[in-house]
Design brief:
With 226 residues, this protein is α/β, with parallel strands linked by helices. It has a domain at 46-190: Rossmann fold (3-Layer(aba) Sandwich), CATH 3.40.50.2020. 25% of the residues lie in helices and 31% in strands. The protein contains four helices and ten strands. It has helices spanning 42-63, 78-94, 147-157, 216-221; strands spanning 11-12, 35-40, 67-74, 100-112, 115-124, 135-143, 163-172, 184-189, 194-195, 211-214. Strands 1-8-7-6-3-4-5 form a seven-stranded mixed β-sheet, sandwiched between helices. A three-stranded antiparallel β-sheet has the order 2-10-9. It is globular and about 50 Å long.
Amino acid sequence: MSNRDGYRGPVVLSDDFEGYSKHEFRLSPRYAKFIESILVTRGMVQDRIEKLALDVVEKMECRGVNSLTIICILKGASKFGADLFQQLEMAAFSKGRNMTFHMDFIVANTYVNDKVGHETHLRVCSDPGKFRNRALLVVEDLVDTGTTMHKLVAYLKSLSPRYVEVAALLVKRRPDCPSFQPDYIGFEVPNRFIVGYAIDYNDHFREIPHICAVNDEGKKHFAVKE
């Protein structure tokens, strides 16, 4: 998948990719025994975000857009959103472009333990009326079933923005679910339960710097009663 704007699709982790040994990288002793493997290291995440930022800025140039509002989905995308925001500013500066970037937030939640719930709850953290005629980039940590993204993008489009695009750090391959294809994807990953880099499991594992797969012991240990 490629286009003239520079974005060439995600980095794909195959289904038979077992990941890197957790013993080869720094992990908190609190979580180490609950991690199955490391799928994406912190360094790989940062390099990929830098490239995504360049792709976004290049597409803004093609469209004649000088201002972009980043809508970060809390809490999981908080770190991705902050790092992407910084890299967008750096990319625009390196190209000598006078571009401005703004950050806004939406709270969304569908998960209970390791399952995706039937209802998606959205809460905008500021006046949604200000999105009218604005270029919007939704920033999501992980697209799983696509339920949240379908609902959120439809809602944002109803506010009459200039356009709405989505950047996701991770997209799971889920042949059992209707697909949602973000405009920018960092990594396409196997269907495993993923944590780290601010992605949580019942508010645990957020502080791990890498993208990791949780083992069955970890799911059980940190599960909450429904």
